[in-house]
């Protein structure tokens, strides 16, 4: 799975656990190497709760996760002398993932979010075990986690178990250089001692929604920018296709149809088109009454996606404030079994978000296709080619877009409506939230690629409108694009150009260029 990952050193940034965490903190640790540390309050809280677990472990009364087996084996009492082995066996047996290796930033987000819950004082973990997890995270040691193994219920069990193995000095892991080395060697090099897990700690390390939540948080972070990128590329396509900007004026949006996302997207598009000589050139004498839907209705589609993301953010913020484990230690010291590990609330919005990603991508592909078709492009050469017939221009780039959009439609099929019972029918309904997260992550990547191809087509179309002058935003972007991939001309190896433009979007430089010209966008 393709992922845009960067590794700037933000190790001077410190995230201190108090209660809950924020989207920005997750991204800072997962993507940008910020350090995570325990506050003194958190240390005291964890230590106090651990004393309660130790008392239960010494009791003759069986307690789930402390002196019993797990899942369908919850009724099996485990004698004191076997409990260390019980914890080791739990982690080793649950680290059963398979398939492609999950991206580094996903694993870091998963570990950070698990540590957040452990620091809540509701899991019964020991301070030294929690500190070891943070030490591994801060040393940039990344356990190897695989694509398949979580059903999004009883937590992201296999992914978290692969991480927990590293605390024990076992399993597989990558060092700061991204190379796999023996875990024991990586820990020793970082001055970290492995831990021997005590009662309850095995469950505490693996019984959470952290994998699906971490991927959700990073998707929302990416989409915060990508929806604005979609507004800009749509506006540039309007410019390249000699479309009108009058359908984006504010009086047509908030007063008549008060969806906030729609108003924001329309305002962005209007700002991008402001001062465009190309748009002004056909305000009179143009026989067209209305532009095609893919131009005229763009704010409704991207705006609707914005509003959906706003709802999804509410769900993410609630889960970021949660302490998910089973059993949990309540504030009065009671240890209680529960079902808070079920990933349904997150799985639904993970699935939900894949739909409004597919639609802006589909609309962007339709605008690109329109720019390549001489019957609909209002004077542009076929496929924006230098010498149509000899040159194919961007013909196959649109094929690539179409393939990406088709994949996004497949990814929009929900995972959360499926459930395959497990653990001898004890876990008879699962959320498949991890799979919903993996789908959404791929959909985000696809959307960026689709928009990169639209940007390549739109800037070429605008360049071919010379001597008509585009707006300030288009002019600035055109200079940047031509500096990276050149301007219109004979056919050349196109894949590196698409990749270069995609990186231009992923780095944030594209929006910085635009906002540096026209001011802040929504």
UniProtKB/TrEMBL annotation:
InterPro entries: Aromatic_Lyase, Fumarase/histidase_N, HutH, L-Aspartase-like, Phe/His_NH3-lyase_AS. One of its GO terms (molecular function) is histidine ammonia-lyase activity. Keywords: Histidine metabolism, Lyase. Gene3D superfamilies: Fumarase/aspartase (Central domain) (1.20.200.10), Fumarase/aspartase (N-terminal domain) (1.10.275.10). The keyword Lyase applies. CDD domains: PAL-HAL. Pathway: Amino-acid degradation; L-histidine degradation into L-glutamate; N-formimidoyl-L-glutamate from L-histidine: step 1/3. Pfam families: Lyase_aromatic (PF00221). It is found in: Cytoplasm. It catalyses: L-histidine = trans-urocanate + NH4(+). Its EC number is 4.3.1.3. Belongs to the PAL/histidase family. This is Histidine ammonia-lyase. It comes from Kocuria carniphila.
